[in-house]
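Posted in: Structural Biology > Protein-Ligand Complexes

Title: Requesting predicted complex, 6-O-phosphono-beta-D-fructofuranose in pocket

I'd be grateful if someone could produce the 3D structure tokens for the following input. Sequence and ligand are given below.
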Amino acid sequence: MDPVNKIAVLTSGGDAPGMNAAIRAVVRSAIYNKIEVKGVMRGYEGLITNDIIPMDSKSVSNIIQRGGTILKSARSKDFKTKEGREKAYNNLKKHGVDALIVIGGDGTFTGARIFGEEYNIPIIGIPGTIDNDLFGTDYTIGYDTALNTVTENVDKIRDTASAHSRLFFVEVMGRDAGFLALRGGIASGAEAILVPEIETDYKRLDNFLTNGFKKQKSSSIVLVAEGEKAGGAFNIAEKVSKDHPDYDVRVAILGHIQRGGSPSAFDRVSASRMGASAVEALLQKKKNVMVGLVHGEICYIPFEKALKDKKGLNKSLLDLMDILSI
Ligand code: F6P
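-- Reply #1 --
Done. Output follows.
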């Protein structure tokens, strides 16, 4: 592999709090190692349309605390085509870029894997998604902040639920994964969680809620992951209301507020470590790998493995959820 003199960095897919901290770490670590840095606007879209800007240490000042991404993000349809990727490669060459760092989730790494196979350009991935659904890393950037947002908001819902003795179904994000619902459920003291990884047993839920109300719980909260397969928060709430007209049932969808806000200290530190490690990986001549954090230590995992293997929910946390919600 040729020495790396100029790199480009982009953010792609759903934004996540802490992406700015990762961009900052990439830019500053590169400059520290005498590598020039370009920023690509709107993810792979900007690579195709040649929206590529110079970056220096000052261009990442005062951003570590900000949510969103200063480079903006997109889900590029054109990058899924051969022609799109060819344009992207030609633009990188035009700018003399010899390596790429991409910050995003599984869609971002799927694109990176294909691009890295088609063209001889080293690519390093940094996991940035609130879903925490990437294999090969315990945490993805943004997950911790989103988890805190879920917890704060469910706490607020609990206040009004208690005041009216209501049963709330609260839908949280996570695409096809239940990580936010599981930890969010434990952190907010939810009565139950419904996640895509476990088939919803309506009878069990019904018994559980009925017992809860019999025990005169002043409120009940069920966190429903958006990828739950029995129809989601609205459908389940409707069924429960029909079966128990005496229950006062409400639904709340937390939605995109989970993606915003100032990143937590944990996300800022993780993003800073991963950003610097991505540059370090290029210096070590690594390519087509994702940076991960496993048991607090930095590691590198091939895109292929990060995408193919599935990270499961922690069994002991699932058991804990059951124990604590009796
Ligand atoms: O991947 C992050 C995420 O927020 C998922 O939790 C959610 O399913 C999806 O993105 C929403 O995407 P969009 O903002 O494009 O609607």
